[in-house]
Specification:
- By secondary structure, this protein is an alpha/beta fold.
- Helices cover 22% and strands 20% of the residues.
- The chain folds into two domains: 1-60 and 329-417, no CATH class; 61-324, Glycosidases (TIM Barrel), CATH 3.20.20.80.
- It has an eight-stranded parallel β-barrel with strand order 8-9-10-11-12-13-14-15. A three-stranded mixed sheet has the order 6-2-16, with no helix packed on it. The protein has a three-stranded antiparallel sheet with strand order 5-18-17, with no helix packed on it.
- Helix 4 (203-219) links the parallel strand 11 and strand 12.
- The radius of gyration is 23 Å and the shape is globular.
- Mean pLDDT is 74; it is low at 1-36, 57-61 and 320-341.
- The protein binds 2-acetamido-2-deoxy-beta-D-glucopyranose (NAG) (2 copies).
- One 2-acetamido-2-deoxy-beta-D-glucopyranose (NAG) is lined by residues 113, 159, 162-163.
């Protein structure tokens, strides 16, 4: 899991006495008082830090980084609601997961508004996710059975989006990404009653699809991304791709219409937008490790389903690259946020060298002595930024005596006089 990602951190102490280091968890604490003198290895200097992903096989509770890695699949339908429960989620966390996938199947509301009761339950599930310190890859649709193609007609679908908007807005922080969904079986925009079935898509159908998408963009807070099923469907920024047949055939079962064009397009787009999905067919040699690792890297995947497709996942285990699959670019959902925040958004970081300039000062009343200098990389969402469970950790820097706080230990300094 040793990714060649170097984060040289330029730490400038005493450069600016307006912000205190303060308590690692409570930040920033402004002080007007003059600063202490600092000595030791960190007050001023440049540090090369090698970013290392937490090793998923040896993770303790909550050690996985947020918004990345394999997800655990869950589903619920309005005809038979299956509430998320915090014990289940905590057991996923114990196994090192930070993401679940969640289908919300609105099967009883194809022709009517969503009931208040269900809206409440959707909101409660988001609260449960926050309690467990997890995030969700969310997809809503009306059917996950190929024989039931019914989906809501345009006006009804737009009403549903209106109803959901305040809930999605309130809980944006725990939503890793929203998959466009809604249209067709599995929300995959293919087998559909109302929007152009099996790829036969009229001009009017395209217009309706566009309307659904722009309404969805309005419904989802700007900090969150939306993913579509194939490159063809994707026209607007903030839209990522989910490939649910990764490596399944030469075209990943029709994900690509023209690989020569679509693949480079995705390589470029996924530098800035989330990419994820699942495998759906054992297809050696294409589904074997060498191609899997190459494409996961080139397409900047951030998550995959841990439960599907078993044949492909087993082949990866026997080819012992399973652990390597958590290799991802270091962009995650977090906005860089420290005391005296630099405003750097880690989601924009690709593998390579990056610099951060941080200045810290210590308030006059701070006790003298040796201090750990810790780097905290919290979530950018206002409701999550104080929850340590969402902090990004660098495996080799995390203070193992204090793992639950998920802080990265950069060095030490002495406070004198
Ligand atoms: C992850 O941890 C396991 C168990 O200790 C170890 O066998 C494996 O080599 C580690 N993987 C990496 C990439 O460090
Ligand atoms: C359905 O919900 C929409 C959006 O909230 C609302 O404007 C409309 O009046 C509702 N329709 C019914 C029949 O309740």
């Amino acid at each position: 899991m040793n990714r060649a990602i170097f984060l040289p951190l330029l730490l400038l102490a005493l450069a600016d006495c307006s912000v205190s280091l303060g308590n690692d968890n409570v930040c920033p604490r402004k002080v007007a008082a003059p600063c202490h003198q600092l000595t030791g290895n960190t007050p001023v200097g440049c540090y090369d830090i090698t970013y290392t992903e937490p090793n998923m096989t040896v993770l303790g509770a909550g050690r996985g980084n947020p918004e990345r890695g394999f997800y655990t699949y869950t589903e619920t339908s309005t005809s038979n609601w299956n509430t998320l429960n915090v014990e289940d989620l905590q057991s996923f966390v114990q196994q090192g997961y930070t993401l679940i996938f969640r289908y919300v199947i609105l099967d009883t509301f194809v022709n009517s508004n969503i009931s208040d009761d269900i809206l409440l339950k959707i909101g409660e599930d988001f609260d449960t996710l926050r309690e467990a310190g997890m995030k969700v890859v969310l997809r809503l649709c009306y059917s996950i059975s190929e024989s039931i193609k019914s989906d809501a007609k345009l006006n009804q679908l737009l009403s549903h989006l209106n109803q959901l908007t305040p809930i999605l807005d309130e809980h944006a922080g725990v939503i890793a990404v929203v998959q466009a969904g809604f249209i067709g079986v599995w929300g995959e925009w293919y087998y559909t009653e109302n929007y152009g079935d099996e790829g036969v898509i009229s001009q009017a159908n395209w217009m309706d699809r566009g309307t659904v998408l722009s309404q969805l963009m309005n419904a989802i807070p700007a900090s969150r991304h939306i993913q579509l099923r194939t490159p063809k469907y994707k026209k607007v920024a903030r839209l990522g791709i989910h490939n649910d047949c990764f490596l399944a055939s030469d075209t990943d079962y029709g994900t690509y219409e023209n690989i020569a064009v679509d693949y480079p397009f995705l390589q470029e787009e996924t530098k800035y937008l989330p990419m994820g999905g699942e495998t759906c067919n054992y297809n050696p040699p294409r589904s074997d490790c060498p191609t899997a690792l190459k494409e996961l890297r080139e397409l900047h995947f951030t998550y995959l389903n841990n439960g599907y497709h078993e044949g492909v996942l087993n082949s990866w285990k026997t080819q012992s690259c399973y652990n390597e699959l958590v290799l991802h670019h270091p962009t995650s959902g977090a906005t860089y946020y420290t005391c005296g925040s630099t405003g750097v958004d880690l989601r924009t970081w690709l593998p390579g060298t990056h610099s951060l300039q941080l200045s810290m000062t210590v308030p006059k009343k701070a006790p003298r002595g040796r201090y750990q200098v810790l780097l905290r990389l919290p979530d950018g969402d206002s409701r999550l930024k104080d929850l340590d469970v969402y902090n990004i950790v660098i495996e080799n820097l995390v203070d193992s005596n204090n793992a639950a706080r998920r802080l990265n230990l950069i060095g030490y300094t002495e406070v004198e006089n």
